[in-house]
Design goal:
The chain is of the alpha+beta class. 48% of the residues lie in helices and 15% in strands. The protein has a five-stranded antiparallel sheet, with helices on one face. A two-stranded antiparallel sheet has the order 6-7.
């Protein structure tokens, strides 16, 4: 048995709550904002959360959390391809001593929070619940704390909403101000990428999403921080003379 609907009629958080109180088991598939998410549920409790978003893959999340280097990730992926057929990446990483069980559990929890927060904020999308569907034998199941994950996802969804509200209009051209040197030593890697790109040429948020190599939420956080410190401003917020003076001074 399956049932389906649209997120505009019932949000993701409410849908998961409904499945929980009814102690349903099966797979909830959600398509929203370009992401395709699959949530396996056992008697109302989430047991596996996956997404087709490349940024949400386990290996990338482990690297982002500094639990794993890119070299070690590539080594583990080669091992999985050559000798680990049928074994999950997480199992290989733990058995080879690249990460600990606790690090794997924490990363999977963060992965779930990140995936769920994105679909919680989505106003448009569709869902299908396939009742009775079970995980395959090859699915790696890491014990989850559904209540903690939902709380974390809800808080992060609130942060995403606030970040989006604080972002500049995606069509406005942005540039750096003379304050860039003052804050240079305090910037994160993503903030450095943003200011370096804007120092070369003004760009919109849409441009930066293509230029800067960072997850979108990390990019949004960095942009809001730079705007709050006055390091980045819209071209229309600065006098043409001020921008020209800054650029001329940079080449003296």
């Amino acid at each position: 048995m399956a049932f389906m609907g649209e997120l505009r009629d019932i949000g993701t958080a409410d849908l998961l709550y409904l499945l929980a109180i009814r102690q349903q088991s099966g797979r909830l598939a959600i398509a929203a904002s370009g992401d395709e998410v699959s949530i396996l549920i056992d008697q109302g409790r989430m047991i596996v959360v996956t997404s087709n978003n490349p940024a949400m893959r386990l290996g990338r999340m482990l690297v982002q959390l500094d639990y794993l280097t890119n070299d070690r990730l590539r080594e583990a992926l080669r091992f999985q391809e050559q000798r680990g057929v049928g074994r999950s990446l997480g199992t290989i990483l733990v058995r080879e001593g690249f990460i600990s069980d606790d690090q794997l559990s924490h990363c999977v929890e963060e992965q779930c929070i990140e995936v769920l927060s994105r679909i919680i904020v989505a106003n448009e999308g569709v869902f299908v619940f396939h009742a009775g569907e079970r995980p395959s034998a090859r699915t790696e199941i890491v014990p989850l704390n559904p209540d903690r994950i939902m709380l974390g996802a809800t808080r992060r969804a609130d942060e995403i909403t606030a970040l989006k509200d604080a972002l500049p209009d995606p069509a406005i051209a942005l540039t750096v101000t003379e304050l860039v040197d003052q804050y240079a030593d305090q910037m994160t890697d993503t903030e450095v990428q943003i200011t370096a790109a804007l120092y070369r040429n003004p760009a919109t948020m849409r441009n930066l999403e293509e230029i800067v190599q960072a997850p979108d939420i990390e990019l949004w956080r960095a942009m809001v921080n730079l705007r709050e410190r006055g390091v980045v401003r819209g071209i229309d917020e600065l006098s043409v003379e001020g921008v020209s003076q800054r650029r001329s001074a940079a080449f003296v």
